[in-house]
Amino acid sequence: MNRSPGAAAPFALLVAVTACGTLGMHLVIPALPATAAALHVSAGTIQLTITLYLIGLAIGQLAYGPISDRFGRRPVLLAGLSLFTLAGAATAIAPSAALLIVARIVQSVGGCAGLVLGRAMVRDAVAGDRAAAQLALLTLVMSLAPAAAPVLGGYMTDWFGWRAAFGLLAVVGAVTTAAAAWRLPETHGNGGGRGAMLANSLRLLRSRAFRGYALGGACTTTSFYAFMSASPFIFIDRLHRTPQQVGVLYMLLMVGLAAGGLSANRLAGRVPAARILRGANLIAIVAAALFLLAWAIGELTVASVVGTIALFMMGAGIASPFALTGAISVNPQAIGAASGLYGCVQMLYGALCTVIVATWSPGSVPTVGVVLLGSALVGQAALTVAVRAR
């Protein structure tokens, strides 16, 4: 097939490669309590498989974006997907928590290639409101995979043990790598040398608009990882649900993210992006406040948790494509670098949120609530700065 620079990538394939990195987190979450018990470690220790995975996603994106600007999207993406697959196989056979955590770090470095380059490939083809609409559609479709993943992970854990959930990621990676090698076109020509790569990144970091979009997008869209990392212990230990039921509850939560992505797709080009960003973030603020209120008045139930967190994720789903589009449009000559830096800030912030939850009080509802509410408030301020700077 034609793989010349500028060719359009199949949308379904972009969804698949972009989803790999996030599937690596969502699919194994229901298996965490069983993994901790089987490997004889604490909840805080096994949560490192999520926290360090997020850190790996963050740091890896710093490299993939600029390198793909220099050498093209396709070869860099195929290398990352191959690494994701091999490390996934290692997690499935890890004999100890230490080796499992190391394999998860390597897996994350491979998985983040799809996160960076899938978004960059969308922006390679379209710009402006069309890019926001396409990224919103990508968010919408991608949300279906993480929604189904915990359900599948919960059943796999119940039926075959915790290793099955980790092994399934290796299978997903292998299939996606093969499909990308077969159908993926090159969407970007080779750029400048190493000096240009560094200069582009430095220009982005000096931009108030980019910093505002990156921080605001991170606060709004990845702070919910604080809830995700603590949720197995909230649902299973506190609300007495089974791993299978937890998987179904995650699917309900992802309905909020999907609704946000659909709303963003409909709003793109019809409502000013600045108004959409502030409105979406306000939804997240209200949802986090309601989550804390439910705990404070003793009404913490499955319904109150799922309802408030789904609302929070709806706000995140609306804000995400507009914050991302704003960030990667600051410098059209450095789309890959911008996508990587934006993703790095996102994942580092998500990792910070999981660290706070794991160290302050693992599985604590008020800790999660404070992180969500504080993040949404900071996000509102950062996005306001970004919009004014543009």
Uncertain stretches: none
The CATH architecture comes to Up-down Bundle
Which structural class should the secondary elements be placed in? mainly alpha
The number of strands is 0
Note the run of SSEs as H and E: HHHHHHHHHHHHHHHH
| Number of discrete domains | 1
Average of pLDDT: 82
Task: Determine the strand fraction and express it as a percent band.
Answer: under 5%
Brief digest:
This protein has 390 residues and is mainly alpha-helical. The chain is 83% helix and 0% strand. The chain is built from 16 helices and no strands.
Task: Please describe the structure with a list of short key phrases separated by commas or semicolons.
390 residues; mainly alpha; 16 helices; 83% helix
Layout of strands and helices, then pairs:
Blueprint: H1 11-26, H2 32-39, H3 43-46, H4 48-71, H5 73-93, H6 97-125, H7 128-160, H8 162-183, H9 194-206, H10 208-221, H11 225-238, H12 243-267, H13 273-296, H14 302-328, H15 335-360, H16 365-389
Describe what this molecule looks like in 3D.
There is one protein chain. The protein is an all-alpha fold. The chain has a single domain (11-389), classed as Up-down Bundle (Growth Hormone, Chain: A). The protein is 83% helix and 0% strand. It has 16 helices and no strands. The protein is globular, with a radius of gyration of 19 Å. The mean pLDDT is 82.
